[in-house]
Design brief:
Blueprint (H helix, E strand, L loop, with lengths): L1 H7 L3 H5 L7 E2 L4 E4 L10 E4 L2 H9 L18 H24 L1
Antiparallel strand pairs: 1-2, 2-3
Amino acid sequence: MALIGIYCGVRLKSEGLTLRWSDIDFGRGTVSVQVPYSKSSKPRTIPMNSLVREALGRLPQKSEWVFTKPTGTPYTARSHKVLMSSIFWGKQAWYASKELN
């Protein structure tokens, strides 16, 4: 999810969490952000670089959503906040443990 945010400029909470596999065009190498989720209220088509294309190609297609929980259900804005905070605090704890040793 982070790669698509960094390399495609997709807003993770409003645009990234709402991506469907139908928005990903591997043939053309693009990601489409649909109008209801776009900040500008206009559709956007964004080119993917090889890193993003490879990462998306490795994801299992469990449901219509690109980014899902292990159960196949999509993340919500609240679960995204919990996910991002666990990643952040997990890294902080890892760095703190390294500093103690």
